[in-house]
């Protein structure tokens, strides 16, 4: 595998209630502190981006597993929530992923269980989960459903 590199440029003006932006090859966003922390809330923030990174990493890692192991998954729905606490500094406490896996066939119980196991493996293999492990609790709840067959 080759080494990869990604460049992000960013700027910020003002104090906590200031604003900024960042840009990469495929992403351009406004930055602002969340209102709960004295910001304007007029853009995304590192807390939101961390949860988005964890969610997208889980999805893309699982997609690679679906392809590699020929899993009968037609769709994945994911809702991820980051929980933070602010005492002397802001700290990420946990990220919880709630997933619905839609199978093309079944779900026979062994097929459903093996697909859930692969989702758990994907969470463990995801580079974001690996980077935050031992600092942030990551939870995963998932259910398997049968995709509707056309009538």
Overview of the structural elements:
There is one protein chain. The chain is elongated and about 55 Å long. A hairpin with a 3-residue loop joins strand 4 and strand 5. The protein has a three-stranded antiparallel beta sheet with strand order 1-2-3, with no helix packed on it. The model has no long low-confidence stretch (mean pLDDT about 90). It has helices at about 45-70, 110-125, 125-130, and strands at about 10-15, 20-25, 30, 75-85, 90-105, 135-145. It is about 30% helix and about 35% strand. The protein folds into two domains: about 1-45, N-terminal domain of TfIIb; about 45-145, K homology (KH) domain (GMP Synthetase, Chain A, domain 3, 2-Layer Sandwich). The chain has three helices and six strands. Helix 1 packs across helix 2. By secondary structure, it is an alpha+beta fold.
Question: How are the SSEs placed, and which strands pair?
Answer:
Elements (H helix, E strand, L loop, with lengths): L8 E5 L5 E5 L4 E4 L14 H23 L4 E14 L3 E14 L5 H17 L1 H6 L4 E10 L5
Parallel strand pairs: 5-6
Antiparallel strand pairs: 1-2, 2-3, 4-5
Task: List the defining traits of the structure above.
151 residues, alpha+beta, N-terminal domain of TfIIb, GMP Synthetase, Chain A, domain 3, 30% helix, elongated
Please estimate the helix content.
25-40%
CATH fold type of the largest domain: GMP Synthetase, Chain A, domain 3
Strand order in the largest sheet: 1-2-3
- Count all strands and give the number: 6
Distance between the termini: 44 Å
Order of helices and strands: EEEHEEHHE
Uncertain segments? none
CATH superfamily of the largest domain: K homology (KH) domain
Biggest beta-sheet profile: 3 strands, antiparallel
Compute the average pLDDT: 92
Percent of sequence in beta strands: 25-35%
What's the Cα radius of gyration?
18 Å
**CATH level 1 class label of the largest domain:** Alpha Beta
Query: Helical element count?
Result: 3
Q: How many domain modules?
A: 2
* The CATH architecture of the largest domain: 2-Layer Sandwich
- The quaternary structure here is single chain
Shape: elongated
**Helix/strand/pairing class, anyone?**
alpha+beta
